[in-house]
Amino acid sequence: MAGKTVKKDGKTWYYTFTHGKKENGKPQQFKKRGFKTKQEAQKAVNELEHSLTTGTYIKPNKMTYSEYMMSHWLEDKITQVKKQTLATYKWLIVGHVLPVLGDIELSKLTPMAIQKFYNQMTKNEQLTDENIQKIHTLIKDSLKKAERWELISKNPAALVDRPKAVKKEVVVWDVDEVKLFLKQADNGSRYYIAFLIALTSGARQGEILGLRWQDVDFENNCIRITQTLSSDGKEILPYTKTKSGTRTIDLPKEAMKRLKKHKRMIEQEKENAEPGTYNDKDLVICTESGTPTNKSNIRRVFSTAIRRAGVKKIKFHSMRHTHATLLLLQGENPKIVSERLGHATVRLTLDTYSHLLPSMQKETAQKFGKMLFDNEQDE
Questions:
Q1: Are residues 218 and 325 in the same domain?
Q2: Could you tell me which of 178, 195, 172, 201 has the C-alpha nearest to residue 340?
Q3: Of 159, 187, 215, which residue is a domain's last?
Q4: I need a labelling partner for 209 at 20 to 30 A (CA). Which of 32, 103, 112, 311 fits?
Q5: Which residue, among 52, 54, 53, 10, has the nearest Cα to 34 in the 3D structure?
Q6: Measured between alpha carbons, how far is 327 from 360 in angstroms, rounded to an integer?
């Protein structure tokens, strides 16, 4: 037996719909109130009928988005992503998504609510455009799984456009600024070697702070990137950010000489330490007791050296960009630059430093013209 009715109840409308039977053999009835118009109630009951007859009906539940994310989706991700990636997911979800969307029932999360959330973050500049895009990816992925698990009938995030990211121009130093900075930073600080490695290798900060002496090859003048310091600085992770991040980077002989000098200092600190007090983790950049370096200490020394050198203020990560930029500007093959940076593809390298392409094109054209027409006089 099947039947449906739409009626008014005071100022609102409701529907009742009978379809199939319960386990005890009695008719199964569905009822929902609170519609503002008759048309809304009629549309809702028609959608219910369609889902029941096509077998796509999902029984409503009171689970909130927060309960689903914390108890199901994030738990599932533990077995799928690296520890550092999971930490980033939690930072974005717990710190930014759930305070706004967490109390909404999973089945009542709408495209409009998600879009409003994106608009709010963009307007308030709570996060970078890139991180807002990451949040969209996480929300969409989580609701896609909820749809597969039949917790919701459709993924509302699939109906929301991916937030746009305005590409910011990479801020870097030129050669003169690099020289000024290194001169000022070279004042006996134990962190000078970290800055030197960053500028001569293009390695990431976590990779430099996780570098071990066993990964420094003095005979072949190179370092091997095989592990990284976690973003919170509490542990050494036995892997790099990406598969292509595990790599060998050749360094200038001058940088290797400074590494040898730095190693002698570390060995002296080991000898001078009280028995049982030195925590030897074989780290190149470490505290006087051998433990991983606190990133805030690096930032403080870095900022002081920048101020003394009188060069423009950049972040530690921008030394990586500086290294790549200087290589490209001197005509280095983008594939070589990509390999040094540990990028997954050359395209990623070219996209990141696309602002350099116009000047590089002009210089290339001039060099090519000189090669062909060097003996000809300009008219």
A1: yes
A2: 201
A3: 159
A4: 311
A5: 10
A6: 12
Structural domain count of the chain? 3
For strands 236-237 and 228-229, give the pairing.
antiparallel
Q: Which residues contact 215 (CB under 8 A, 6 or more apart)?
A: 223, 224, 225, 226
Residues near 338 by Cβ (< 8 Å), separated by ≥ 6? 345, 346, 348, 349
In whole angstroms, give the CA distance from residue 28 to residue 1.
Answer: 9
Domain check: are 217 and 345 in the same one? Answer: yes
Q: What is the CA radius of gyration of the chain?
A: 30
- Report how far residue 200's alpha carbon sits from residue 378's, in angstroms, rounded to the nearest whole number: 41
Domain extent at residue 44: 3-54
Distance separating alpha carbons of residues 206 and 229, to the nearest angstrom: 5
Q: What stretch of H or E contains 173?
A: none
pLDDT for the residue 64: 94
pTM to 2 decimals? 0.71
- SS3 sequence, 179-237? HHHHHHHCCCCCCHHHHHHHHHHCCCHHHHHCCEHHHEECCCCEEEECCEECCCCCCEE
Q: Tell me if 128 sits within 8 A of 96, measured CB to CB.
A: no
375 confidence band (pLDDT: 50, 70, 90): low
Based on the domain organization, do 76 and 134 belong to the same domain?
yes
Identify whether residues 11 and 104 lie together within a single domain: no
Residue 69 bridge partners (DSSP): none
SS3 31: strand
Query: Which amino acid is located at 181 in the chain?
Result: F
